[in-house]
Amino acid sequence: MYSSLKSFIAFGLVLLVTTLEAQQPQTVSQGVYTAAQATRGQSVYKDRCVSCHGDALQGRVGPPLAGDDFLSAWSAQPLSELFSKIRNTMPQDAPGKLTGEQTADVVAYMLQTGKFPSGRAELRPDEAALKQIDWPAGAAAKPQTGSPTPSFPPTGNLAQVMRGILFPTSNIIFTVQTHDPAEKKNVPDSVASDGGFNWSVWGGNLYSGWEIVDYAAVAIAESAPLMLTPGRRCENGKPVPVNDPDWVKFTNELAEAGRAAYKASQARNQETVSDVTNIIADACLHCHQVFRDRRGGPGGLNLDPSGKANRCTK
Description:
The chain has helices at residues 2-23, 35-48, 50-53, 68-74, 79-89, 100-113, 127-130, 158-174, 189-192, 209-223, 245-265, 270-291; strands at residues 26-27, 133-134. It is an all-alpha fold. It has 2 domains: 26-134, Cytochrome Bc1 Complex, Chain D, domain 2 (Orthogonal Bundle); 158-310. It has a two-stranded parallel sheet with strand order 1-2. The longest helix is centred in the first third of the chain and has 22 residues, at 2-23. It is elongated, with a radius of gyration of 25 Å. The termini are far apart. Mean pLDDT is 86; it is low at 8-22 and 298-302.
């Protein structure tokens, strides 16, 4: 009985140590996959990925999956982000068709191609565990230095930027609350015949629903800084307060909302994206309350019920 107790305690200690090790932060330089797993991943890659990303993962119609450009794109995030991107959105022509195990195998092959060492334990398709695996410090390529970035003067006023980019793209994301992007819907002839000016069906015959949500989220994140373009004016002719701390804060909040929406869209889950619409709505509301939805005029006179005369001012 004493011998059995010792064996039980020893087993428990091994299990505890293994569990603690699995929970400790790691980097991909510490052997997080096995050579056999990378070999399986190479087979999946050749079957499902090579046509877009190239024989040597150098990129073709899709981006590279190894090298400096790849590391620049992914080394600031835990390995779970790369895993989720592949699992949920790849291959391009059949997203979500790879199993968790196949995805982990492909990631292992990518690490092997990137000259990160193999180890004794396989990379597990477990998001919680993958969140504990980062890239080594300095893995990202150093930013290139060159000529100064050219400046671009504004073409439109702030209202035109809002209505041309931010308003329609936000509506695409808000539509996810009531429509599943994965559902294929036929566009009625009465809508399709409007010459393509209906935002609700933009790209409906060109891209999948989830791709459209991706593009809308990216548009929000990338176009938010246009609110800080020097020299831009509000619809009422007043200069946009690009140096006002609150304006800068709200601009950053909107850009962050766009990035959150894009990350949510990568999950390919309607509920996940529906939840993030609150972040976009709040970002818009915070700025509107201070700089747009203001009533009255000089001396408190309500000469402009719409509040347009006071926009872009606090």
